[in-house]
Amino acid sequence: xxxxxxxxxxxxxxxxxxxxxxxxxSGGRYGPDPMSAFxxxxxxxxxxxxxxxxxxxxxxRKTIDRTMLGAPVPRPPQILAIGVNYREHADEAGYPxxxxxxxxxxxxxxxxxxxxxxxxxEGNVDWEVELVVAIGVGGHAIAREDAWSHVAGLAVSQDLSxxxxxxxxxxxxxxxAKSHPGFSPVGPWLVxxxxxxxxxxxxxxxxxxxxxxxxxxxxxxxYDIPELIVRLSAVLTLMPGDIIFTGTPAGIGNRxxxxxxxxxxxxxVSRVEGVGELTTHLV
Length: 283
Ligand code: ZN
Fold this sequence. Notes:
By secondary structure, this protein is of the alpha+beta class. The protein is 15% helix and 31% strand.
């Protein structure tokens, strides 16, 4: 099942990629706010599956204009982002894996959706394709065997990063350097894990103007999705609607010789197998 934020309204995405407005189809029980899905994720998921399965006559299906897609989770209570979570990227960054995942936040004002136009600030802006996990059911001290049942869905994302400010001082400025407006594109929609053959092993890649920059598999994560949920929820309480940026594979611009950064006029396309394709226009 796929959920999207179409012009600020929660929609279900049909197999032929058309939108069913949730507020309209549920008679106001859920929606129109995309965050309303997380007030009672399990109840909502049952209703949504039934609605998609039964071909109710008179249920309106609208064509999706991709430029109208917003971040599928527009106002997460918490945004967690993980650094150096892929083996090859850990090697290129020179970090040893730690017992706690390297964790920072991306401020919510940096969220945007598919087809976003992102203005490049001064400095060196780098790409980081990532899989985003949205939490459906919150919890503290979640057990590994229960972890997937807390997940609402997965989305494609970029953790755009301005490297000069990130690496300038004595201590890394992950959160600020990764939170310029539009620096957290997420989309194109949220895909529930049951829609994927193996949600733990998905091809993940990104390309600038058609040239592949990163190309890996999510099974190469040091801490996989259940392990991230275990280790993060051992410390903090995860809340419904939280999102986790799960880290980027090798191939970022800062680690190339010579370094290579994003330029105005370029188009960044990020893909996760079975989840979708997210396009970001740099201006
Ligand atoms: Zn990242």
